[in-house]
Amino acid sequence: MADTFSDAGDLSGEEESQEEDVMTPAELIARLEEAWLNEKFSPELLENKSELVECVMEQLTHMEENLQRVRKGDLKASVHRMEIDRIRFVLSSYLRSRLQKIEKFFPHVLEKEKSRADGDPSFLSPEEFAFAKEYLANTEVYLKAVALKHMPPNLQNVDMLKADAETLAHAFISSRLDHCNALFHGLPSKTLRPLQYIQNSAARVLVRTKKSTYITPIPLQLHWLPVTERIHYRVLLLTFKALHRLAPTYLSALLHPYVPSLPEPCLDSFVFLRVKERQENILVEPETDEQREYVVDLEEGSQHLMRYRTIAPLVASGAVQLI
Q1: pTM: predicted TM-score of the whole model, two decimal places
Q2: Whether 129 contacts 113, CB under 8 Å
Q3: How far apart (Å, rounded) are the C-alpha atoms in residues 255 and 230?
């Protein structure tokens, strides 16, 4: 690898001081590969190596110029061309890894860059900083056009730098799934399945899993209830508020606390009795809705089968005897 860069010439650029170390082409490529591997496998965005990238770009330009002076068909030119392609791949992969992290964590990256002190090194190159700001602006425009304008007024103002992905998912998806979802209580699972598909897709976006990944543990990881359970929860919540006078009056008026009744004697049971004293004009309640009330006279010594509620006062007064 070092021979290839030797043909391209030493690293260009004037020395700013006598103490500055001059890297050989092999050291330059080694540093690029080290920065590439660190960036590729690091979960966070590392400090930018813009000077290193510029040096590699200049060397690639010199190598391209030198290759044009090489005789066609020379094996050495083919080897050098392969080496140039390899270096371009490493360089593009390094830059692509940084852009992917900027797209994924752009609120965090911009907030970190905003809070950086003047003397601290910047994690973004000027081009990457411009890309992050443009990506933020495009995301805000897209969200306003697709979702925000359809949301309630109190949810239309979202600060993209302070809101994380889960907050946005709750603002744009969960809030729509929960809106008046108590009306869905009792619907068959087939009708609610499209809503569950929407929640599953949002969960996969948050944890960044494939569509083929088993979905059941993902909502549990996010502490999300399934759509059916969210409907049950909303009904129970409305019931609790209605019973405790925390819901609107028209809902509270529909519900009454259940008070279990104490065991009481059944006064409508039928009993046998013997008349001790003649009784007149005893009002007898009808046994069915089709019948009417009627009046009877009880002759002394007669026996009857009647409701206890009707002859209870006579029992208390001793006019009749239960048998």
Answers
A1: 0.48
A2: yes
A3: 21
